[in-house]
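Consider this pair:
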Amino acid sequence: MRQALRSLRKHDAEIFALRYFEEFSYDEIARQTGVSLNAVGVILYRARKRLREILEPMLALDAKQDGNPKDRAEEGKENRHVAT
């Protein structure tokens, strides 16, 4: 996560941290940073999108290495016998 956060522009990472680590409201972030309320929303949207682009491949690789629990659950369903 730290590496992914470093990929954001410093200002965007600061706003992201205020929202998700410090739990500031959008209004509080706007007042604290001097950015408009609308800009806070846009910055957070773009930061989440960028982080998702970076983290999803990493998470997919981890799931593949560990075995996806969803896949194991589906395998279990296929192996069940239904009594009639």
In short: Helices lie at 2-6, 10-20, 26-33, 37-66, 69-79.
